[in-house]
Amino acid sequence: MAKNRLTKIYTKTGxxxxxxxxxxxxxxKSSPLIDAIGSVDExxxxxxxxxxxxxxDMIQQDLxxxxxxxxxxxxxxxxxxxxEWLETVIDDYNEYLEPLTSFILPTGPxxxxxAVVRRAERSVWVAIAVLEINDEIKISREIPKYLNRLSxxxxxxxxxxxxxxxxxxxxx
Length: 172
Prior knowledge:
By secondary structure, this protein is mainly α. It has one domain: Up-down Bundle (Hypothetical Protein Ta1238, Chain: A). The protein contains five helices and four strands. The chain has a two-stranded antiparallel sheet with strand order 1-2. A two-stranded antiparallel ribbon has the order 3-4. The N and C termini lie far apart (68 Å).
């Protein structure tokens, strides 16, 4: 079975504000769906800037699956088992952490990735709200659920790897 290959990177359809998803379906780049797909891509890139671990590698694979599902794949899906896996990893990291006593100042690549993942989650919720109201597309709720748990995991990982700076309320 021959694999699809990109032999020509530029198509010039983007010059007119269009892009292709799900094979050859043309969609405006201003679509909330394209914004969500782009936000997930940004999140994956931000996560790629963190230290490489098996967990990070698995998350990046999941995010490609998630993006494919958003783009219309009927065979690649984010399953409840992937969300449960994130919850297990969160619980594993949390076992080594003290309870929080203050807000944490975000520092380092894990906190940056967490913030980008939160934005991706918000973009997916916007796509759900806009596209489902117009009966254009139905987006699985596992997608924003996965992103929500992923941002939680990145927060816990940042704490675990000692990237924790506590906020000290400054009364003036």
